[in-house]
Specification:
about 300 residues, 8-stranded mixed beta sheet, Four Helix Bundle (Hemerythrin (Met), subunit A), alpha/beta, 8 strands, Rossmann fold, 2 domains, about 15% strand
């Protein structure tokens, strides 16, 4: 099996529940005798139900109505190919740049609410780069939960990466200061920073994360070099609200969709990218170290729409 086919199969497994929820009703539409206003209304409802979002669904339908003059679109059976192309186009409108790591250490700040899969994602990304021969250091800056520190230490051991941590309740900025100092001294390629995600008050959380980002900027030139937001795929369209808030407060540069294998709401990613114009970096499709895929718009669209 080729590498591309292998990726598609892994994505199809990860998107299985999302695909099942979407393809059944779509198959009914594909059996319609002709493309008419009633069919288009049903399609729009299907897209919204699939958590793609009202704004993005309307955008797709508006373009479809403009394109209906094309001969091939007179047949509803062509809808699948049309949607695949449109979804791939929407997801690919913001390119995801693979960092060249011109600066050592390359500092990545991870954001996300508690329970989103953030710490697990950091462990997987650390392992991925360790497999490439990179030197990786982790910083346990979520000091408000002892379990978060312990979890990162466990993932660091699995990935073969050291972890800088303080006692629970310590100042996150102090952890980051020590981690940056250690990363420079040890000539690390990457420093991956975990952060708190509790939502007891959104204002306090965002203020704390802004402080963390300022500390990083003072201690390392142009850092953080990436700000990755980890979203829980099971949250569906609610993830859009989270993404808006984190992006407005901290300038998110990339997205990671975790827990994709456990939900029928993976379509929410399409609306998030379309509205916020933030590239997707990775998809989490399981609990193992290698259950993380680099995001490819065309492969995602095909895995979603082609059985």
């Amino acid at each position: 099996m080729s590498e591309q086919k292998g990726l598609l199969e892994r994505l199809r497994r990860g998107l299985r529940r999302t695909q099942e929820a979407f393809l059944g009703p779509l198959e009914d539409l594909l059996g319609s005798p002709r493309m008419d206003s009633g069919l288009l209304e049903e399609l729009e409802e299907l897209l919204i139900t699939a958590d793609i979002g009202v704004i993005t669904s309307e955008r797709i339908l508006e373009k479809l109505r403009r394109d209906l003059g094309r001969k091939e679109l007179s047949d509803p059976r062509r809808l699948r190919d049309y949607l695949r192309e449109e979804i791939a186009s929407l997801l690919g409108q913001v390119a995801s740049r693979e960092p060249p790591y011109p600066t050592r250490p390359w500092v990545v700040l991870f954001l996300g609410v508690n329970g989103c899969g953030k710490t697990t994602t950091i462990g997987k990304i650390a392992w991925r780069h360790r497999q490439e021969g990179k030197k990786v250091l982790l910083a346990a800056a979520d000091t408000f939960r002892a379990a978060a520190i312990e979890q990162l230490q466990i993932w660091g051991k699995k990935a073969g990466a050291d972890v800088v941590s303080h006692r629970p309740g310590a100042d996150p900025s102090a952890v980051i200061f020590d981690a940056l100092k250690a990363a420079k001294a040890r000539q690390m390629d990457l420093l991956l920073i975990d952060t708190a995600g509790r939502l007891h008050t959104k204002r306090n959380l965002m203020e704390e994360l802004r402080k963390v980002k300022r500390v990083i900027g003072r201690e390392a030139t142009e850092a953080p070099h990436e700000v990755l937001l980890v979203l829980d795929a099971t949250m569906g369209s609610n993830s859009l609200t989270q993404a808006r808030e984190f992006h407005q407060a901290l300038g998110v540069t990339g997205l990671v969709l975790a827990k994709l294998d456990g939900t029928a709401k993976g379509g929410a990613l399409i609306g998030i990218v379309d509205e916020l114009k933030i590239p997707v970096k990775y998809l989490g499709i399981g609990e193992k170290l290698d259950d993380l895929e680099e995001f490819e718009p065309e492969s995602f669209a095909e895995a979603l729409l082609i059985p």
